[in-house]
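Please predict the structure of the following assembly.
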Amino acid sequence: MNQTRRERARADARGNPPGVSQPEPASPAPDREHALLLMREMLRIRRFEEKCAELYSAAKIRGFLHLYIGEEAIAVGAIQALEPDDAIVATYREHGHALARGISAASIMAELYGKQEGCSRGRGGSMHIFDAATRFYGGNAIVGGGLPLAVGLALADKMTRQARVTACFFGEGAVAEGEFHESLNLAALWKLPVVFFCENNLYAMGTALKRSESETDLCLKASSYEIPAWPVDGMDVVACEDAARRALLAVRAGDGPCFVEFRTYRFRAHSMYDPQLYRTKEEVEEWKKRDPITTFETLIRAHNLFDDEDLKRLEEEVGAELAKAVEFAEAGTWEPVEELTKFVYSERVR
Amino acid sequence: MTTPAKTVRITYRDAMREAIREALQRDPRVFLMGEDVGRYGGCYAVSKGLLDEFGPERIRDTPLSESAFVGAGIGAAMGGMRPIVEIMTVNFSLLALDQIVNNAATILYMSGGQFNIPLVIRMTTGAGRQLAAQHSHSLEGWYAHIPGIRIVAPATLEDARGMLWTALEDPDPVLIFENGALYNMEGELAVDAGAVDIDKAATRRAGTDVSLITYGGSLGKALAAAAELSGAGVSAEVVDLRTLRPLDTATIIASVTRTHRAVIIDEGWRSGSLSAEISARIMEMAFYELDAPVARVCGAEVPMPYAKHLEDAAAPQPSAIVAAVRGMMAERG
Ligand SMILES: Cc1ncc(C[n+]2csc(CCOP(=O)(O)OP(=O)(O)O)c2C)c(N)n1
């Protein structure tokens, strides 16, 4: 039967990418250890960013600061599906991804402070977290600007026959950019091992998706490039991980890219300067009822995988890590001004 | 005593192709990517025949997506490859400015030195082929404004043959500007010609009365002007910049210090330009050496017209260079 693109863009009943059927569930059955891991990772990001907001008010952190609060399930779930030598390309809203990827909270915090002990030596700040050790290729502050890079990283892997995948995170705002369309086309045309993780939080700064796109079905756009694409509840960390695992499995099989739309919401302002005139308090409150951390907590408590003791312990551990990170950043040093022009070009041995 | 090297008659286009071929043979990480580089053979036939020799993986046709394939070149370079990205002309590179300026030029710095980008981007520049206002501009001076990238402009067969390999060995992004009027330039090239440096300007003709400072498509015109001037008893030195960023200021200043006069010739526009930058450096560093104000012969400040006579009038010509020098010498009194 001839399916319409709209139908083909849908995952099957199991949540498999369209055209990809996997008999076994890709994610492991929920167990206590894994539940604790997901919970801990989400809490780490939440507490880290709450602290960031505080430090911003205290003028310890400057520049633009985009918080991920409300969207933690995506980075935590999706990055679970990555192998250590996979690559990540992210946006300016990337603290969560960096933490979930295993870049130390201390080196991220030092970066936000602008200290040379920061993961980008204080050259990048909040929007430009880079880390070679974990193949974290930024922190890109140009909407859509990271997608071509991800395509290129995947091209290199394909040409050198490395079984690695590049995960590219971006907001739904990027879908309006030409670079989105050029990149999806190229990735599909060349069957590159890249996975597009679109974080649809409904607003690009103050512009609602429906006010900026004639077609608001993002999966339909991706599937028009013959890319398997499907939406998933971005507030549900288990669903996020599951979707990412299925996508990664398909991409690793060599079938080319996948596109996953994580439906989510940012609880905080776009950045630190945003009176949020474009949405109602009621709408925000409605979404907060679906807070990825509290809903997951409720779920694992119901399965007797988590109790008050666990929460207390996790909070303590996360708090201790955070306190150390702030201490590290505070104790950090400023790069000498004499090094201002260092790394404009590589240091060349001649 | 060295015996004269054996030479072969070759065009600039073929020299460029030889350079690409050699790079592909020498380094398995090298590949060529761009619009119509494969089956079509390259819009200026530079890559003609390479597809048959190296296959579609390494001679990679792309869709009309300048931003995506330039960005993919950056990503592939970070991923361990040594891409040569071809953009048909500099005007089309404007669709990839985001990737060049916001990514290629910044990532090493923003990442605190963690990720360098060993990428080469080649593109055609310049007028002379009646292609009018969307295919003929000389925007390399714009790119030379940007820290983090290196800009080179081969004006000779040796440089067409030799700059690419050096650019590929550079750890950072290098943009190569090939003036479209040069592709058919033919001459003798040593059979063993190979890599050349991309750091230094070159004195293409020695002289004592005036320095003609130029690059790319205007080099031939400056040399023609110098020949004419020599008939009139004026000895002109011709400096080929070769690398537009970083500028080899030392060679420029040394030449001006010898001749005490400078004329800068650039197909690009005069306002806010590379020629203005060079003039400023001479002013800053050799003001007291000058016997006359620095002069410039630049492209007329118009979108490039189509009609031949107008296009000729819009580009620097030997006659204008000669006139500029004569005006300067007249002031000698
Ligand atoms: C090319 C470009 N245009 C505009 C901006 C300014 N800007 C920064 S974030 C943003 C909204 C992007 O929204 P989205 O992609 O949905 O991501 P979100 O911020 O919601 O995570 C805009 C317009 C930019 N950084 N880059």
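The CA atoms of residues 24 and 54 of chain B lie 8 Å apart. The interface with chain A takes residues 29, 31, 57, 62-63, 65, 67-81, 83, 98-99, 102-103, 107-116, 147-148, 150, 170-172 of chain B (CB under 8 Å).
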